[in-house]
Write a structure and sequence with these properties.
mainly alpha; single chain; 169 residues; 8 helices
Length: 169
């Protein structure tokens, strides 16, 4: 239902935006929800499967939020009347962090490999987040494997630039 509200909102709506609130529900920290990573991925997958441009665009915004590995912030407070609420799901171990990102990275890689209309958007989202994901050392093997797979279908300059910072002369 939140997705439907978001899709009906004007994209230029910046004050108390439903879109920003929804995106914050898909990040690893400060989401304000205890929905599982699988439940969140299911929402993204359903939006992509809907095959409408606005839904697919929203799906990639949510996927982008799920792949965010630094600069977490919340677009809502955690109070509900007189009852304080917690900040939502919080990984307890490094394995929880790895499992979270691995799920979303592998899903993104599947979209890229599908060579469908969403493949290029998936590449953009992954390359946008590669540098911050690379800083999570337990993800490097997964990232390297996926980057090798992607590069088999041709040069992926955005991904290369994301991991390899420019050399200053």
């Amino acid at each position: 239902m939140l997705c439907q509200f978001t899709l009906s909102e004007d994209k230029t709506e910046n004050y108390n935006s439903i879109r920003n609130i929804l995106k914050s529900l898909f990040q690893l920290y400060l989401s304000g929800t205890h929905a599982t990573k699988e439940q969140r991925l299911n929402v993204i997958n359903n939006l992509i499967a809907s095959d409408t441009e606005n839904s697919i665009e929203l799906a990639f915004e949510l996927l982008d939020s799920s792949l965010e590995a630094w600069h977490f912030s919340s677009h809502h407070n955690f109070d509900f009347g007189a009852n304080p609420r917690d900040f939502g799901y919080r990984p307890k171990t490094n394995q929880d962090v790895e499992d979270w990102y691995k799920l979303f990275i592998e899903y993104t890689a599947e979209l890229i490999a599908s060579d469908s209309q969403v493949s290029s958007s998936a590449k953009k989202i992954l390359s946008k987040n590669l540098r911050s994901l690379w800083r999570v050392s337990c993800l490097r093997d997964v990232i390297e494997k996926i980057c090798v797979e992607i590069s088999k279908s041709g040069m992926w300059s955005d991904g290369f630039q994301a991991i390899n910072p420019p050399v200053s002369g």
